[in-house]
Amino acid sequence: MQTNFVQIKNSHMAFKYFFSLLVVLYVITGCSSGPTTSNEIETTVLENFETVISLEDNVLATPTLIRKGINSNLYIYDDAQTKILEVDNNGNVVNEFGQPGRGPGELLLVNNFFLTDNHLYIVDYIQYFIHQYNYNGQFLSSMDYGDKLGLPMAPAAPFSSSEIRPKDINNQPFVTQDGNVMLSNAKFSDSVQYIYELIDWNGNHISEIGTVPEGSTFVIDNEKLQSDVSDRVVPSLYRSNVFVINDNSNLNEYFLVYSALPKISKYNSSGENLWTVEIPKTQELDSLTTNFFEIMERLQQADPRNRIDLKYYTSGISNSNGELFLITNTNPAWIHHFNAVGSLIHRYKLISEDVEIKPIFDIDFEQKRILVVTEDAEIRSYPFLN
């Protein structure tokens, strides 16, 4: 009996020791898993800036997309001019891509453009074309993705606006660094099994990428939308709103940003989900949520068909380390910096006392500056340390 008692006592002490060890490990791993609230995330306020292209330069009218090229020049899409301008470091236009029209390589309304090592691609989402150019400005070929998705004919008179606002790139075509294309049918079908199909330039299937969130719908149901707003939940119509960002540390991997949930998923080109993370709440995202539901309730009281988009982020970019930077759809604009496994590790607040900064941006990692567009059609750069 004495032996059994000693064995039981020793087993009990071992259990207590093992349990204590588990608690310590839980605390340690819990503390090292990354920040979960905005108070724990390091924040930098950026106030100093340089004007890269001013209104007086008479170069831009309504810049709505901006990219820093591998040659250090800036590529800017201007809605009013319906073309992409290549601008050098002195602010001079050195090349142009596209022009208004319906002919080969001509544009009606651009949604996005992409820079690869050898080509520039422009997405015309009214004509359902993706146009391919070389860097001399020469048009090479087009992909008719409307034919691929079975979309209707383009309208005769496309809508145009003089307002500077970010493009809606959710569920729109995305061109990868190797010239393949991701197409989403989430906005054009009532039954969707995946968000994107990855195809080559000739339209051949490569893989299926992106999980459809639970509870998503793809056809407008005003009663369901009104119910979701009343319940203060993300409307089912917006749950599958996703845009893609190439991982510049691995060109076969992609970030899928679910801009209304919000969350981030990482996939490879074979369609394998590498990880998924929920984005923690921050003051600026909470404010956007509150504003969305308040505005939606007012609009739907007037007419149940009225709605606005719920969009936490408008675009993003990754660096050579596989870290992700997203710009918030807020005023003032914030840049959220995520590490390579999706944890939010830094917030940059962009201050402008004279004009509003639009959530249209790119980052020049070599010169350590954030490039943004203002409501006055100017391009500014904010220096930052990455």
Describe the structure.
The protein has helices at residues 2-32, 145-149, 222-230, 283-302, and strands at residues 42-46, 50-53, 63-68, 74-78, 83-87, 93-97, 110-115, 120-124, 129-133, 139-144, 174-175, 181-184, 196-199, 205-209, 242-246, 253-258, 263-268, 273-278, 313-318, 324-328, 334-338, 344-350, 357-364, 369-374, 379-383. It contains four helices and 25 strands.
Summarize the biggest pleated sheet: 5 strands, mixed
Give the N-terminus to C-terminus distance in angstroms: 67 Å
Instruction: Assess the beta-strand content as a share of residues.
Output: 25-35%
What spatial form do the alpha-carbon principal axes imply?
globular
**Multimeric status of the protein:** single chain
The secondary-structure class comes to: alpha+beta
Contiguous runs where pLDDT drops below 50 for at least 5 residues: 1-36
Major sheet strand order: 1-22-21-20-19
> Please, what is the average pLDDT?
88
Order of helices and strands: HEEEEEEEEEEHEEEEHEEEEHEEEEEEE
User: How large is the radius of gyration?
Assistant: 24 Å
List the keywords:
386 residues, alpha+beta, five-stranded mixed β-sheet, 34% strand
Please render the helix and strand layout as text.
Blueprint: H1 2-32, E1 42-46, E2 50-53, E3 63-68, E4 74-78, E5 83-87, E6 93-97, E7 110-115, E8 120-124, E9 129-133, E10 139-144, H2 145-149, E11 174-175, E12 181-184, E13 196-199, E14 205-209, H3 222-230, E15 242-246, E16 253-258, E17 263-268, E18 273-278, H4 283-302, E19 313-318, E20 324-328, E21 334-338, E22 344-350, E23 357-364, E24 369-374, E25 379-383
Parallel strand pairs: 1-22
Antiparallel strand pairs: 2-25, 3-4, 4-5, 5-6, 7-8, 8-9, 9-10, 11-12, 12-13, 13-14, 15-16, 16-17, 17-18, 19-20, 20-21, 21-22, 23-24, 24-25
